[in-house]
Design goal:
The chain contains 2 helices and 8 strands. It is globular. The protein is an alpha/beta fold.
Length: 123
């Protein structure tokens, strides 16, 4: 039986370097620029790691609508509240706070270019 694995999650963006640096701070993963002829991009992730990497590619058109796919983050070194505050200090903003409603428990945020992601309740 054939199958596929996820190699990367790719973000189209207007400033790939800023986005890569933001997500590097969010995840704690290193970032680096990859000089591919005609298609340079920024990569966030650990080399050789089995986890998908985040890739940031510059495109000319702006983001216009809500994401159809988003990342869910799980805090490891603190509470959900502490992680939301940390992410806000990096430039993210709260889009919808679902901690006190049903269904809920998460906080929907947007990164520095408006891409939505959720912060779940911690471990």
């Amino acid at each position: 039986m054939s199958r596929s694995s996820i190699l990367n999650v790719t973000f189209d963006c207007s400033d790939a370097e800023s986005m890569a640096r933001f997500w590097s701070e969010v995840t704690g993963w290193p970032c680096s620029k990859v000089e591919m002829p005609g298609n340079p991009f920024w990569w966030v992730g650990v080399d050789g790691d089995a986890s998908p990497h985040l890739v940031f590619v510059e495109v000319p058109e702006p983001k216009r609508t809500k994401n159809r796919v988003h990342l869910d983050l799980l805090p490891h070194d603190g509470s959900q509240e502490q992680e939301v505050a940390r992410l806000e200090s990096l430039g993210a903003r709260i889009v919808d706070d679902r901690r006190g409603v049903i269904p809920g428990g998460w906080v929907m945020m947007a990164d520095i270019e408006g891409n939505e992601f959720c912060v779940e309740e911690g471990e």
